[in-house]
């Protein structure tokens, strides 16, 4: 594998999300705005929250499908990043996103989560996702 460091921040997540045209439409405006933390403000729209969660699970499923056959490939790295970044983002939500995290992690069944690529992506997502 031509080793390049895992991408950090929104650019890497954008690359993952663009694997599906539907995901791209959902995420592109968010990624163009760049990373940000939202404090307070209006309550989230439940429909939009479900759409975002569905996009995460869909992308995780597609990455996992390839990563099962290529444990040291880019998809394994990206999947590790996605899992860790989602966990990091859900960390301060008092359990609201537990089901989403469970569904994303469920997609890793059969993936070698001990592979170097997956672990490298996971570390990047945990630290920067």
Describe this structure in words.
The protein is mainly alpha-helical and 129 residues long. It has one domain (10-128). Helices cover 64% and strands 0% of the residues. The protein has six helices and no strands. The protein has helices at residues 10-17, 21-33, 46-67, 74-90, 98-106, 116-128.
Rg, nearest Å: 14 Å
Low-confidence stretches: 1-10
Q: How many individual domains?
A: 1
- The rounded distance between the terminal residues' Cα atoms is 23 Å
Shape, principal axes of CA atoms: globular
Structural class designation: mainly alpha
Residues in helix, % = 55-70%
Q: Report on the biggest sheet.
A: none
User: Helices and strands, in N-to-C order?
Assistant: HHHHHH
Number of strands: 0
Summarize the structure.
The chain has 129 residues and is an all-alpha fold. The protein has helices spanning 10-17, 21-33, 46-67, 74-90, 98-106, 116-128. It has one domain (10-128).
Layout of helices and strands:
Blueprint: H1 10-17, H2 21-33, H3 46-67, H4 74-90, H5 98-106, H6 116-128
Helix pairs in contact: 1-2, 2-3, 3-4, 3-5, 4-5, 4-6
Quick tags:
single chain; 129 residues; mainly alpha; globular
């Amino acid at each position: 594998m031509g080793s390049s460091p895992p991408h950090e921040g929104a650019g890497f997540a954008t690359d993952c999300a663009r694997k599906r045209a539907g995901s791209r439409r959902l995420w592109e405006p968010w990624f163009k705005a760049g990373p940000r933390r939202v404090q307070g403000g209006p309550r989230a729209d439940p429909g939009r929250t479900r759409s975002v969660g569905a996009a995460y699970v869909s992308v995780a499923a597609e990455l996992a499908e390839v990563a099962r056959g290529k444990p040291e490939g880019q998809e394994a790295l990206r999947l590790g990043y996605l899992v860790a970044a989602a966990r990091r983002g859900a960390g301060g939500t008092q359990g609201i996103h537990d089901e989403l995290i469970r569904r994303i992690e469920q997609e890793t069944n059969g993936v070698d989560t001990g592979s170097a690529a997956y672990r490298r992506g996971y570390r990047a997502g945990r630290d920067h996702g």
